[in-house]
UniProtKB/TrEMBL annotation:
Keywords: Hydrolase. This is Acyl-CoA thioesterase. One of its GO terms (molecular function) is fatty acyl-CoA hydrolase activity. SUPFAM superfamilies: Thioesterase/thiol ester dehydrase-isomerase. Belongs to the acyl coenzyme A hydrolase family. It holds the Pfam family 4HBT. Its EC number is 3.1.2.20.
């Protein structure tokens, strides 16, 4: 699993108890996962379809540095399934885990369309190769 994104937990990210707000963390994960899906499927028109059980394992506090990890676990016909783990960068303690995030590859009309991908792309995919809607 690659931990590409690091976040520094700031005052505006906190809930009234002073720990990292769960909704903020989920927003960061959705964003991270959609970028991962766009790169893997080489298409900018992908949407979040399904997110499985979310396990908030431990909390993060102001000042903590956390990192978000995403890994593709299955390439379907029109979908990609990923798993996610968030951990404290310093202690490596798990903060959250999600077993399944499913994103669907869409065409210009917004209909699910085959992506033709079968395995993880590790090499850099040029941004010019990512299909964008016109
Ligand atoms: C890096 C450079 C970028 C440059 C460029 C930037 C562009 C920057 C763009 C940003 C983009 C932001 C995007 C953000 C992410 C949102 O915020 S997306 C917003 C939230 N999501 C939505 O609004 C989606 C709403 N849902 C839908 O529109 C429809 O459900 C969908 C997605 C079109 C799918 O329709 P459907 O009838 O369920 O389709 P169906 O053919 O039955 O299934 C499609 C696939 O989903 C799977 N599936 C269906 N239901 C389920 C389920 N419950 N569980 C698991 N899998 C399921 C199916 O098995 C199938 O997969 P395959 O077997 O083909 O692999």
């Amino acid at each position: 699993m690659n931990f590409y994104t690091r976040k520094w937990v700031k005052p505006e990210d906190l809930n009234p108890n002073g720990s990292l707000f769960g909704g903020t963390l989920l927003r960061w994960i959705d964003e991270e996962a959609v970028i991962y899906a766009i790169v893997q499927l080489a298409n900018s028109h992908v949407v979040t379809k399904y997110i499985s059980e979310i396990n908030f394992v431990s909390s993060a506090q102001q000042g903590d540095i956390i990192e978000l990890g995403i890994e593709a676990t299955n390439f379907g016909t029109t979908s990609i399934t990923m798993r996610c783990e968030v951990r404290n960068k310093i202690t490596r303690k798990t903060i959250l885990s999600i077993d399944k995030l499913v994103f669907v590859n869409l065409n210009k009309e917004g209909t699910p369309t085959p992506h033709g991908r079968t395995e993880i792309t590790y090499a850099y995919v040029g941004i010019d190769k990512i299909k964008k809607d016109e």
